[in-house]
Design brief:
The chain has 5 helices and 4 strands; from the N terminus they run αβααββααβ. The chain is of the alpha+beta class. The protein has one domain: 2-Layer Sandwich (Alpha-Beta Plaits), CATH 3.30.70.100. The chain has a 4-stranded antiparallel sheet. Helix 2 crosses helix 3, helix 2 packs across helix 4 and helix 2 packs across helix 5. The longest helix is centred in the first third of the chain and has 16 residues. The protein is globular.
Length: about 160
């Protein structure tokens, strides 16, 4: 019985081990995507610092794919307080267009682009979360950006 239990624990450690401390992949399957990041109010400066460092590194990367990722990536901060109980700030990553099969995981991008600082920045980044982020894949249904805006008629007194 002890041998069976030890074997099971060892197998679980082997399967789970590599993913411990690693965020899930952030690969978009749609044309565009969004991720929602609820950040503790007191950690917004840390979060923004890491995001700024990542986007700067991507935009000057020697890798064409990562430069393309940066070109389509915007980060928004909600004006309204976020959950839980309005003690967080919601950040939204808007990715449009999404680079096919590119990994948008912050830990992976840190490892690739800022390897000497990756661990420190990753710890600062993960400590800022109020709860787990979520990802949404998007497919374009309508595009109003090409619509010509006609001037309004002058107001006659």
């Amino acid at each position: 019985m002890f041998v069976r239990a030890t074997l099971c624990v060892g197998l679980v450690a082997l399967l789970v081990g590599p993913s411990v401390g690693r965020a899930q992949d952030r690969i978009f399957t749609g044309e565009a995507g969004m991720t929602f990041h609820p950040i503790r109010l007191e950690n917004t400066a840390d979060f923004e610092d890491v995001i700024t460092r990542v986007l700067d590194a991507l935009s000057t990367s020697a890798d064409e794919t990562r430069r393309a990722q940066a070109a389509g990536w915007k980060v928004y901060r909600a004006a309204e307080p976020g959950p839980p109980e309005q003690t967080s700030v919601l950040y939204v990553f808007a990715i449009d267009p999404a680079v096919a099969e590119a990994d948008y995981s912050i830990d992976e991008l840190l490892r690739l682009e800022l390897p000497l600082e990756a661990q420190e920045l990753w710890e600062k980044f993960t400590a800022s979360y109020a709860y787990s982020p979520s990802l949404v894949n998007l497919t374009l249904v309508a595009d109003f950006t090409g619509i010509e805006i006609l001037p309004t008629a002058p107001v006659v007194p």
